[in-house]
Amino acid sequence: MALPNQLATTPARTFAVTVLAWIAAVGFALPLLWMLAGSFRTGTDIFANLYPLSWKLFFPSEMTFDNYATLVGGEFGLSVVNSIFVTAATVLVGLLICAMAAFALSILRFRGAAFVFALVVLSFLVPFDAIAVPLANLFRAWNLDNSYVGLILPGLANGFAIFVLRQFFMNIPFELAEAARVDGLGWWGIFWRIYLPLSKPALIGAGFTLFLFQWGAYLWPLMIGTDPSKVLGPIALANLAGQFEVDFGAIFAGAFLLTLVPLVLLLIFQRQFTESLASTGTKG
């Protein structure tokens, strides 16, 4: 008898959840809209309508592209190219490494597999900043500072990406691997021909994890990539704030450019990324 009453309240609950979701979305979008509007203003006009707060803050009356011209003509453009190259290499190579590690932990039966998986889980629970200083000392001793290899290496093996892929692989019926073994296919063939084609959502989710880790990294590039030719985007953005003068227009334009790339990728692969996260806890 309680079922009709529950069904009667469903539209109201749906409406309330929808309203709350829109409020949260607007709350997250307003700073991005202010950043976008500020990138087309001069540095002195960015804070003109902040006190008292006005809707004109989000819609520039006079637009200028000088901020973007300044960034393209300076060192910031090179830093964005460096970030794209380092991030792309990290995602492509790191995704292969993480997928192979996840395949071994989910399919292969070897002594100590549970202990290795526990170390993988522990690796993404420990903040990278806690090991950045001793790791940077090792890289300098190996002459890997101010090099693309030194910038890329720490991001290749990501514990969370391995965890996501392992959980997804464990949901694939093991009978497929057994049948392939009977037909004479080796483990590498099973991994390459069966598991990878079936794991597109998980691969996109893990790849996006690697992308965010590398694209937004600040401490590690600051310690390793000190040469002007190896500076990455976040470091170049911080360098826009000079000691005696701060060009807020250029900073807003640079921040928008660095935000635009992950935003576009998330909009394109949103469904696959959500599916990969939803599958992480389905099987242990």
TrEMBL record:
The chain crosses the membrane at residues 12-37, 84-108, 115-136, 148-165, 202-220, 248-269. GO terms for cellular component: plasma membrane. It is a multi-pass membrane protein. It is found in: Cell membrane. Coiled coil: none annotated. One of its GO terms (biological process) is transmembrane transport. It holds the Pfam family BPD_transp_1. Its main location: membrane. It comes from the Bacteria. Keywords: Cell membrane, Membrane, Transmembrane, Transmembrane helix, Transport. Residues 80-269 form the ABC transmembrane type-1 domain. Belongs to the binding-protein-dependent transport system permease family. PANTHER family: ABC TRANSPORTER PERMEASE PROTEIN MG189-RELATED-RELATED, SN-GLYCEROL-3-PHOSPHATE TRANSPORT SYSTEM PERMEASE PROTEIN UGPE. This is ABC transporter permease subunit.
